[in-house]
Amino acid sequence: MPTNYIGIGLIPTETGIYYEPPEEYNYARVVMSSAHWSWAVGGQVTNILGIVFPQAQGGDWGIITNWYIFDSGTYGAGNLLLYGGLDPEWDVHENDIPQFNAGEIGITLS
Predict the structure, then answer these.
(1) How do strand 51-52 and strand 99-100 relate by DSSP bridges?
(2) 42: DSSP letter
(3) Rounded to two decimals, what is the model's pTM?
(4) Which segment of 9-13, 87-91, 103-107 scores lowest on mean pLDDT?
(5) I need a surface site. Which of 37, 45, 63, 78 has the fewest CB within 10 A?
């Protein structure tokens, strides 16, 4: 998998509009390279490294329902390539540091 960027937010709309937490609260997408992903096994890849987002500062990020994969690290830019749901949802407050542990994101290829 080429270098991409993971973000978090609310479920995208049917027209592909997505909602990320406010950038002014220190939210940023996190770079991911091929080293972050396993080889496909049974049509599925998983993150083999943890993914840590910046600490929420200046305010709450709110309820987070989804992760996103983008082709750009720039806030509000690029193409939304993939997304998936969080179970349970996250409620990110000021000073929280959202993160995925290794193996928490699974993508099924078909």
Answers:
(1) antiparallel
(2) T
(3) 0.90
(4) 9-13
(5) 63
How far apart, in Å, are the Cα atoms of 83 and each of 17, 25, 26, 94, 96?
A: 12, 22, 21, 24, 22
Contacts of 87 (CB under 8 A, 6+ apart): none
Taking alpha carbons only, the member of 75, 79, 90, 60 closest to residue 30 is 75
The angle at the Cα of 97, spanning 76 to 58, to the nearest 5 degrees, equals 65
Whether omega for the bond prior to residue 22 falls within 30 degrees of 0, making it cis, is no
Main-chain phi, psi angles of 93, to 5 degrees: -105, 165
Q: What is the DSSP string of 12-41?
A: PPTT---BPPPGGGT---EEE-GGGBPPPB
Query: What distance in Å separates the CA atoms of residue 97 and residue 52, rounded to the nearest whole number?
Result: 7
For residue 28, is pLDDT > 80?
yes
Cβ neighbour number for residue 27 with a 10 Å cutoff: 22
| Under 8 Å between Cβ of 12 and 48 | no
